[in-house]
Description:
four-stranded antiparallel sheet; 6 helices; 13 strands; 27% strand
Amino acid sequence: MAQNEQKQAAAQAAIQHIPVGCIVGVGTGSTANYFIDELAKIKHKIEGAIASSDATAQRLKHHGIEVLDLNNINDLPVYVDGADEITEHLHMIKGGGGALTREKIVAAIARKFICIADQSKLVNILGNFPLPIEVIPMARSYVAREIALIGGQPALRQGFTTDNGNVILDIHGLQIMNPVELEATLNQITGVVTNGLFAKRGANTLLLGTDSGVRTIT
Length: 218
Ligand code: 5RP
């Protein structure tokens, strides 16, 4: 199966995990886009969606799916999103598409996080994919220096502004042996809005598209 077919297969499998009548949290990226296209087929069975980015909100609306305000929601049964890297412990690097902060907010509220991914995303150790950090623009150089002190090589994502008006530093050269600890450490740096480690709140289930079908890891 080609990579895109694996993404689509994972997205199709996620539909089985959507309770009837619920509000669905929806992630960002090419795999999440496949999920939105599948969700459109059952849109009459859901109450609406919470979008993790402007791009996702646009795609949901294009399909006629109502996009709700997270501030009016008390309970979010499920959040479906992709990842840039994920381990068997269901810790992730996210933010390749730059939507990490809103993704983390939606994930924090969701009772269940279902990660959908193609098999290339499953890794033993996180860090080969540069770790994205959303930073307040005036703190960019300071945060970059602090990251260098802990052994990372930060690179400003050129020509990119997040939905929240901030910049992204992508940290290269990390081998992340303790994702929960590093996630907390990075969040302590003044000027950091969020980092792309989803470890304290990882996924609950991974639906992994592979050459031999969709593998479920919980
Ligand atoms: C966006 C993300 C995406 O989930 C991640 O980049 C994976 O994207 P794709 O499904 O296109 O491989 O975190 O901020």
